[in-house]
Amino acid sequence: MQGGAVLRAGTRSAADGLRTAGRALAAALFPPRCAACGRPGAALCQPCLATATRLPHPQCRQCTRPLTYGDQCARCRLEQRRIEHLYVPYAYTPPILQAVHRFKYANKRYLAADLATLAMSALPSDLQVDVVIPVPLAASRERQRGYNQGQLLAAEVARHLDRPLDGNVLIRLRDTPPQTSLPRARRLDNVRGAFRALRKLSGTRILLVDDVTTTGATLEAATRALRRRGAAWVGALALARTPEERSDVPLSPPDSHL
Ligand SMILES: [Zn+2]
Ligand SMILES: [Zn+2]
After folding, report:
1. How much distance in Å is there from the Cα of 249 to the middle of ligand 2?
2. 19-241 — its CATH code?
3. Ligand nearest the Cα atom of residue 75
């Protein structure tokens, strides 16, 4: 997928066949193990997954924080967020945190399929999008890690939705300090202008994909870049969100690639 043009995820091309065969081979040689208990079979086994914390509803549709009424929190209204809907099923706590950590830092790329399936449990079944776009890493981070885990997740999501994946239209212009080191009020400023869309997107409905979100500020900045080029609707999907008022998540800093 690296550097590829727009890929029609749903077409059963030779590349698709090879990818499927590759996945099957990898699964046979290195069966995924549960990140929490080590049982072979999946990124998280059913008993461990049952202990994962789902984000409560009702929630703000733009940042997923809990609400008592309505669908937009006061902070998102104040910031005039443009993101239409942020879909996040889980809290970034064990065992989801362990699975993401293995995916991001232990080079377990094949976990992308399982994690994408878990993330997609937050999407409404009638969601209409034209294209799936990963949140780009800062180039230096991608070089360090060798791959963009958001892009791997986004590719799986595109495949499930039978929509094209476009990993080239959105670029990150600069490195930004880690979001977790900043109070929420400054996070939007921190990432403002960090993204640019490289071509017109008039009338397009776009689903952004990232692995973990903290306040949604990065996704909001990416949304604004896409809306500036005419996107009609921008929503985002992430697997997990850091718990409320917590910046000391163990093991791995969320949004550390910012
Ligand atoms: Zn387990
Ligand atoms: Zn909100």
Report:
1. 21
2. 3.40.50.2020
3. 2
